[in-house]
Amino acid sequence: MSDGATTAAEQQDAGHRHTAEGDPCAADQAAERYWTVDEHLADILAQVQPLPPLDMQLLDAQGCLTIDRISAGGDLPPFDNSSMDGYAVRVADVAGATAEYPSVLTVVGDIAAGTANLPVVGPGQCARIMTGAPLPPGAEAVVPVEWTDGGSGGRDAAAGMRPASDTSAGAADGSSGEVKVFRPADGGDFVRRRGDDISAGQAVLPAGTVLGPTQIGLLAAIGLDAVKVRPRPRVVVLSTGSELVPPGTKPGPGQINDSNSFALTAAARDAGAIAYRVGGVPDDAERLREVIEDQLSRADLVVTSGGVSVGAYDVVKEALAAEEDGAEPALGKIDFRKLRMQPGKPQGFGLLDDRIPLFALPGNPVSAYISFELFVRPAILAMMGVEDVHRPVVRATLTQALESPSGRRQFARARYVLGRPGEAGSVTPVGGAGSHLVGSLAQANAVVVVPEATTAVAAGETVQVILLEAVPATEQ
Ligand SMILES: Nc1nc2c(c(=O)[nH]1)N[C@H]1C(S)=C(S)[C@@H](COP(=O)(O)OP(=O)(O)OC[C@H]3O[C@@H](n4cnc5c(N)ncnc54)[C@H](O)[C@@H]3O)O[C@H]1N2
Ligand code: MOO
Asked: Is 308 found in the same domain as 276?
């Protein structure tokens, strides 16, 4: 029987005909409560609290949600400034200017971006000005340098745009002397008005905004160096199993490389957490308890994998429980339960110290990953203050028949492809139901959800699909 197959107890539970004869555990198991996926998730979300807000430096706050509505303290731009390199002019002075009959103006100053002392531009005068530099008093518009002779009294425009520090052209560098203007200008031409982007007091981001690059840029632009957000949860990921050796170490007889702690740490990061991978801990309850206790100082959430089923070395329960001799109290109130789902039947969840959520996920790699997606990811998002903690769900046409155990909601990993505009996409299962199949898991970008009461879905039927990744418009 594969590890994904239904047990006799589940078949009985799901209404299959079954006798307890020859199965000493059947009566007990039939009486045991099986949780639905929805009940388990609801229990988790009822116990997980958003983290308290913190003032964080802008770049540390990337990906976090703002707590307050944020308003600008001042206007942006903070002063009228030029949008072009050119000459700041008075409109009347350039009225009717043409190439044949240019306006000839006296250049009274040179204004680079960042200049504080501005010349006053009087009638018949202008000032050379660079992009972003403040419009000087008296000037009403900017004429781009391309529409002038460059201020050289006949030299080309490019030469006229030499920086003022470049004295090689003497007074003919365009920053003094005279300039010929070949076109007229209206008031405000090539001028970025003070406050035309954002005015003082304007709300720029509502509370609950996810801070991406453009929002972080905006906060910097209005002068904030820190922002109040819910921080990223610090997630400690550890895997249990005496068979585990880290990648890079050649497994000996009976050993395998620990993959869960890597996949789950990466998944926690992907969800927005700061994740710490704590390598494989052997099947030794005392050792595991010590490791968990050690990690509590830096954990907002703990994820373990392995050791939660009924095997003789399933140590997670033992590590978390009170010691039998009463020497140590329980590390937390963790409930171990069975779910009507496949993969991911055995699950542990509860709070350490009444506050730190602990997820004890099954050890099978596919079970651990799917469990993370369904339960841990939403918890991480809820701790960050995200309201919709669910992955996108779409309907798609199944390309291959699927079988599913009765009484368990199956999450079949699959590859989803977008449909043509207006059409449903299609979804193809990858790999089988075995919870050890990491090769096919890595090809999946989605999971097909087969409801508890459905045991077979034919090719061509429409199914519900949870998208695990952003789906490209066309498949390669
Ligand atoms: N008699 C029963 N046996 C099992 C049942 C059951 O109901 N009755 N449930 C099966 C199901 S379903 C699952 S899922 C697993 C869950 O078992 P554990 O959580 O106790 O996990 P382990 O026994 O430690 O490991 C299971 C499997 O996964 C491999 N593994 C574990 N950790 C890692 C890791 N970090 N990286 C890679 N692979 C890992 C481990 O070697 C085992 O092959 O129990 C079934 N059994
Ligand atoms: O089926 Mo287990 O539930 O492999 O996770």
From this structure: yes
